[in-house]
Amino acid sequence: MNVGKDDPSSRPDEENPEWTAEDMRRARPGLEVIAEVFGSETAEELRRGRGRPPKQDKKVLTTLRVDPDVLAAYQKQGKDWRLRMNQVLREHMPRNET
Questions:
Q1: In the chain, where the domains are located
Q2: Is the pTM value of this prediction over 0.70?
């Protein structure tokens, strides 16, 4: 969808006027207004942190050098080839047996 200058939805009207410098100066953060209208508890419920929530089982970024034919074999299996490679490594990882 290409929205250009001739698109009526991009032009201000009575219901959606263009903001002036004074409007910008008076503008406040949305959560501040929500706290006034609906209470601070509601505003806190709506507040969210930045970015994606942290995963509990984080992966570690590392570089692993493998032979080209090994990589090609896993990649041929489809888009989840990294998961399958991780499963094989997990099945064959050394166990601490003391």
A1: 13-46
A2: no
